[in-house]
Amino acid sequence: MNDQYSRFETEVLPCLDAAYSLARWLVRDEHAAEDVVQDAYLRAWRYFGSFHGGDARPWLLGIVRNCCYSWFAQQKRSREVECDVDDADGPSLDGQQRVETPETVLLRKLERAQVSAAIGRLPVPFREVLVLREIEELSYDDIARVLAIPRGTVMSRLSRARRLLYHDLGDQR
Length: 173
Fold this sequence. Notes:
Layout: H1 2-11, H2 16-27, H3 30-46, H4 56-75, H5 102-121, H6 124-135, H7 140-147, H8 151-171
C-alpha cells in the first residue's frame, strides 16, 4: 500500500492545478470545481491500479472531465454560472517587466475578462479542447486520450473553437 501511495503522490498529486483549472473552466464555478476535483481524485485513487504508467496528467484529466459531466447531469445546467479567472502579474511576452499604471492594469483586466467570458460562452466540447490545449498545453494526442476522440477531431474542434472565440471577441470591439 505504501508503494502505491508513494507512486500516486509522485505521479498524480502534481497534476492538481491542471485538474482544478480544467474543472473550473468546464463547470464555471470555483466551489463546484473543487468538489469535482475532489471526486476525481477519489476516483483516481480508487482506480490507480488501472493506470499503467506514462504521463498521469492526461489520465487524470480524463477522470476530471468525466466528473464534470457527472456534475452537469446532477445540476442539469452548464451555462448559468459566471466564470472568473485570476489575474496574473509578471513579465510581458518579450520578457521585459511591465510598467504597471492604473490604466494598464485596468485595460489588462478588462481584456482578460472579455477573453474569459468569451471562452465561457463556447459550447462545452469546444471549450474543453481549447482549455486543454491553450491553458493546460496538452498535445493533440493527449487531448485525444483525455476526451476519447480521434486526433483529427481534436484538431477540428480546436480550429472551430479558435474561430468562434475570434468572432466573439471581434464582435465586442
